[in-house]
Amino acid sequence: MSVDPITCHILDTTLGKPASGVIVQLFHISNDPSLSEDIQSYANDGGNKHFATAKTDNDGRIKQWIIDPNGDFQNLGINKSTNNVNQSWQILKPGIYKAKFLTGKYFLSLAQTQQQTSTGSGGRTFFPFVEISFIIDNPPDNHYHIPLLLSNYSYTTYRGS
């Protein structure tokens, strides 16, 4: 299986295990990675809807994204296949991007499956979602990895490899 140019990995630090089943959305905020635009344009996501969605696997990883089939994202390096349905993402374009992790749904689902009894959180979390904005430089590296260490009341991230 090929890997898309942006990947994620989530570890649930309350359980000491990968966080599986977390929905993550990708947004493209700006084509300009230099931060020269008005900062307000970044605050409102550039008016964009997410262009890709995925769910973490049993190892807490996202290696491939489901690209919105209704969008034309060639400006992001995403090309439609010959059948005009599937899209492949092989080239990463510079700009500002954001990953939005739907963490509230994850903690609720843990509580419903009784996996979180040892933490005593009952599905509560202080962060219903975690948004991580990041810059893809010009020229971009071949791959960007976004790790997220997650608990009900804190999170940490860094530039992964």
UniProtKB/TrEMBL annotation:
<dbReference type="InterPro" id="IPR023418">
    <property type="entry name" value="Thyroxine_BS"/>
</dbReference>
<comment type="function">
    <text>Catalyzes the hydrolysis of 5-hydroxyisourate (HIU) to 2-oxo-4-hydroxy-4-carboxy-5-ureidoimidazoline (OHCU).</text>
</comment>
<dbReference type="GO" id="GO:0033971">
    <property type="term" value="F:hydroxyisourate hydrolase activity"/>
</dbReference>
<comment type="subunit">
    <text>Homotetramer.</text>
</comment>
<dbReference type="InterPro" id="IPR036817">
    <property type="entry name" value="Transthyretin/HIU_hydrolase_sf"/>
</dbReference>
<keyword id="KW-0378">Hydrolase</keyword>
<dbReference type="Pfam" id="PF00576">
    <property type="entry name" value="Transthyretin"/>
</dbReference>
<dbReference type="InterPro" id="IPR023416">
    <property type="entry name" value="Transthyretin/HIU_hydrolase_d"/>
</dbReference>
<dbReference type="GO" id="GO:0006144">
    <property type="term" value="P:purine nucleobase metabolic process"/>
</dbReference>
<comment type="similarity">
    <text>Belongs to the transthyretin family. 5-hydroxyisourate hydrolase subfamily.</text>
</comment>
<feature type="domain" description="Transthyretin/hydroxyisourate hydrolase">
    <location>
        <begin position="6"/>
        <end position="160"/>
    </location>
</feature>
<protein>
    <recommendedName>
        <fullName>hydroxyisourate hydrolase</fullName>
        <ecNumber>3.5.2.17</ecNumber>
    </recommendedName>
</protein>
<dbReference type="InterPro" id="IPR014306">
    <property type="entry name" value="Hydroxyisourate_hydrolase"/>
</dbReference>
<keyword id="KW-0659">Purine metabolism</keyword>
